[in-house]
């Protein structure tokens, strides 16, 4: 049975459960459940604190886990990223009151408050900056107002929390994060159950980012049309009953679908349809 760690709370937990559900796995019915078995898929899910997931996975007791890239790096655990999942995207940044600092080089002698001590201490050491780091569990934006630190380093998504606290980011982004799948560093990557799990999640990612496009076009326009819709491998082209016409079918990125439909129309394609993909194995 494959043993998988899933975030039990916070920004990662809802979208992770949703993705697993879309991939055909049973998920817990109520938020107090700490583990469930999905016998049909031979998987056991453990609902753990996002911050602890890399530690459990690095111990080898759980095969894989879903966590944030920033949490993995912050933990220093012996685990590695094997698949980015595209949700809980954020940037990790320094911020402070305007006029305090413009770059990491200005932080010498200052105190930085953060929930991600591992990332911050390493970044300061890499830049050769001698600053103190104070660990806070959350709501770090308030640390400056209350005099616990001159600077904070925190997760930024929309920037609303910083704006509300009268703070501004400065310096280069420290890292970009998103939800990821991890396994113990150097674990057997060919394990069929792990591969099947990854293929299912990849299927969900593809179904979310692509649509299926169908259209008819004249044979003379086929090369131009195929250049607009190259598909993942190559489009399917079938003859139509009307001579001189073909039907084309290809996957296209959902975000570009409307522009591609306009371009296809302009070169004479007709009956252009897009349909959602519910599931897929590449
Ligand atoms: N506002 C946000 N937008 C996107 N991702 C976020 C946001 N806040 C936290 N994350 C991501 O969520 C992960 C942290 O999850 P964690 O559950 O520890 O904190 P949280 O989501 O802030 O929840 P809480 O603070 O309620 O415990 C990290 O990978 C982080 O980058
Ligand atoms: O840029 P934004 O869209 O405002 O998002 C970033 C904020 O979201 C998270 O806070 P959360 O609400 O989880 O509280 P916390 O600080 O207690 O973790 C993070 O720690 C930032 O404070
Ligand atoms: Mg938080």
TrEMBL record:
InterPro entries: ATP-PRT_HisG_long, ATP_PRibTrfase_cat, ATP_PRibTrfase_HisG, HisG_C, N-reg_PII-like_a/b, N-reg_PII/ATP_PRibTrfase_C. It holds the Pfam family HisG_C. Keywords: Amino-acid biosynthesis, ATP-binding, Cytoplasm, Glycosyltransferase, Histidine biosynthesis, Magnesium, Metal-binding, Nucleotide-binding, Transferase. Gene3D superfamilies: 3.30.70.120, Periplasmic binding protein-like II (3.40.190.10). Feedback inhibited by histidine. It catalyses: 1-(5-phospho-beta-D-ribosyl)-ATP + diphosphate = 5-phospho-alpha-D-ribose 1-diphosphate + ATP. Pathway: Amino-acid biosynthesis; L-histidine biosynthesis; L-histidine from 5-phospho-alpha-D-ribose 1-diphosphate: step 1/9. Residues 207-278 form the Histidine biosynthesis HisG C-terminal domain. GO terms for molecular function: ATP phosphoribosyltransferase activity. CDD domains: PBP2_HisGL1. Transmembrane segments: none annotated. Residues 49-203 form the ATP phosphoribosyltransferase catalytic domain. Its cofactor is Mg(2+). Its EC number is 2.4.2.17. SUPFAM superfamilies: GlnB-like, Periplasmic binding protein-like II. It is found in: Cytoplasm. Belongs to the ATP phosphoribosyltransferase family. Long subfamily. Catalyzes the condensation of ATP and 5-phosphoribose 1-diphosphate to form N'-(5'-phosphoribosyl)-ATP (PR-ATP). Has a crucial role in the pathway because the rate of histidine biosynthesis seems to be controlled primarily by regulation of HisG enzymatic activity. HAMAP family: HisG_Long. This is ATP phosphoribosyltransferase.
């Amino acid at each position: 049975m494959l043993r998988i760690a899933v975030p039990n709370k916070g920004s990662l937990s809802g979208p992770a459960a949703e993705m697993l559900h879309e991939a055909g796995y049973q998920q817990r019915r109520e938020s107090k459940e700490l583990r469930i078995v999905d016998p049909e898929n031979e998987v056991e899910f453990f609902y753990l604190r996002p911050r602890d997931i890399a530690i459990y996975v690095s111990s080898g007791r759980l095969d894989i886990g879903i966590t944030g890239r920033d949490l993995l790096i912050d933990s220093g655990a012996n685990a590695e990223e094997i698949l980015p999942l595209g949700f809980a995207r954020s940037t990790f940044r320094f911020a402070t009151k305007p006029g305090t600092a413009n770059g990491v080089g200005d932080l010498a002698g200052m105190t930085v408050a953060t929930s991600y001590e591992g990332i911050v201490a390493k970044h300061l050491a890499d830049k050769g900056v001698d600053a103190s780091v104070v660990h806070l569990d959350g709501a770090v934006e308030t640390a400056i107002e209350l005099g616990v630190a001159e600077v904070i380093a925190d997760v930024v998504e929309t920037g609303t929390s910083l704006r509300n606290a009268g703070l501004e980011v400065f310096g280069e982004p420290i890292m970009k994060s998103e939800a990821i799948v991890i396994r113990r560093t150097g674990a057997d990557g060919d394990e069929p159950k792990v591969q099947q799990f990854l293929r299912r999640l990849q299927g969900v990612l593809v179904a979310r980012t692509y649509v299926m496009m169908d259209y008819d076009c004249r044979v003379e326009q086929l090369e131009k049309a195929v250049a607009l819709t190259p598909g993942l491998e190559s489009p399917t082209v079938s003859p139509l009953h009307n001579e001189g016409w073909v039907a084309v079918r290809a996957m296209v990125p959902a975000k570009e679908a409307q522009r591609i439909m306009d371009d296809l129309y302009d070169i004479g394609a007709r009956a252009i349809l897009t349909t959602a993909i519910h599931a897929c194995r590449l």
